[in-house]
Amino acid sequence: MKYFSIGLRALLTLAFVGAGAAKLAGVDMMVATFDAIGVGQWFRYVTGVIEVGGAVLLWVPGRQVLAACLLGATMVGAVLAHVFILGATEGVPAIVLGLICTAVIYLHRDQINKTPQRASF
């Protein structure tokens, strides 16, 4: 299961770093998508930071569930935006990424009831 988790997290990392970087860089397609959603370009930046940050968090020991929940929540928002605003057929990648996030949560479910430890430097 360890290698399966690593593979899923690597897939999520590639997808979310790519998508988040495109949002942060202001790729035309991303700007147009957030214009169509109608919440403003500030939300594109917030989403990009969450995606890149969540992808990094996937590799922090003991934080995989938190990261997958964050990324999964963005995919719920993406699916809702596609269904209600952008067109239902375009939401399939978000559904797939959300399902992969769910699998990561399941694989690391032992983290759910643990009390987070403070980092000491």
UniProtKB/TrEMBL annotation:
Bilayer topology term: Multi-pass membrane protein
Domain of life: Bacteria
Protein name, UniProt field: DoxX family protein
Keywords: Membrane, Transmembrane, Transmembrane helix
Keyword Nuclease: no
Protein's UniProt keywords contain Magnesium: no
Cited InterPro entries: DoxX
Subcellular location: Membrane
Pfam families: DoxX_2 (PF13564)
Positions of transmembrane segments: 42-60, 65-85, 91-108
Native source species: Roseibium algae
